[in-house]
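ERR on first pass: missing label on line 2. Operator R.T. fixed the label and resubmitted. Corrected input:
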Amino acid sequence: MPTAFRDYYQTLGVARTASADEIKSAFRKLARQHHPDVAKDKKAGEIKFKEINEAYEVLGDPDKRKKYDELGEHWDQQGGPPPGYGSAPTGGGDAQEFHFEGTGFSDFFEQFFGGGRGFGGFSSEGMGGGARRAAGPRHGRDIEGAISVTLEEALRGAIREISLQSVDPATGQTKTESFKVRIPKGALEGQVIRVPGKGGAGSGGGEAGHLFLRVRLARHPDFRVQGADLYHDLPLAPWEAVLGTTVRLDGLDGQFDLKIPAGTANGQKLRLRGRGLPLPKSTERGDLYVVAEIELPKQVGSTERGLWEQLAKASSFHPRG
Amino acid sequence: MASVSTSSDDGQFYSIEMVEQITHLERERIVLYQHYGLIRAVPEGGTLRFDEAAVLRLRHLAYLLSEYEINEPGLRHFAALLDEVERLREEVRFLRG
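pass 2 clean. output:
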């Protein structure tokens, strides 16, 4: 199936030689600008936010970036990915080509980096030591793929429309099926959503396989996710860390003020209970950890330098003893 | 275009009877795999409940058992490797921010 090339460097506005930090910084800046909650045009913001996330999914991963850079020369040759890339049906039986739409990833990503695969297609007769590939009904292949879910969708739950196109290699016929997938409230990274009967067709009267979608939380410009907990890296000026301050933060539920205590150390985590993602099968939520990142001014004018020198003379703080 | 259908409900958990139906594995085997840690179960009201990840794992195991006759130590090794890969994948995504 025809696939349009995605220039991920162009999407993030970075050079092909950009460092990992430059790529991360570009991603965060763009993601903040185009996040659906703040974008002026919500629909356009959603589309752009997904493109940015996909670009960072590849360029932010050293292995995927390397493959992508190599792929650049060969991507449209021979009608398919080189060995070692992306979606490829596995397991026994005839290989059946398939691809998704609506998972939050483009066709290009699905083809080269999606890792979606079919497996299975087994007979339940002769299980556990019986005849391999027993004659009779065979269940259809299961299909496993990924679905990109924003934190907001995970927080509130959502319904997404997915379509699955499959090409029968024997007949060349394309079949497209659309269905709605419910993202449960409290969906966590790696959680599996099963869509019954939407896998490969069974044979000999066997039932169809299932579609299994693994949740991949879209990267957020302000939060990292670990389980149901959120982490927010908060840059602080040295005097803010020493003297304490109050900062206004954007949580998933809206803005709030946070008091930074005097004497906050670099890397110190301030725990805010119940401001994370919902816990499965519970009314409770995980926590939000605000991680202090003390940053130093890159340029110091003469007046500022003078003040720092005064402080250095007056202070009794000697970290090396 | 085919008709629209809905997936399983909010983070659905299944009884062992439903898991038997979906995976075509006998109850005793499901309990054994849970005992060995190949799948995780959530105790609820004195019974065991299984999530979609457990169903996916059992479908994988059923396939390996049926098509390749992989023995139980082999299945345990496979399951342990898959768990580690998923755990590492999540850790890397967290660290990369």
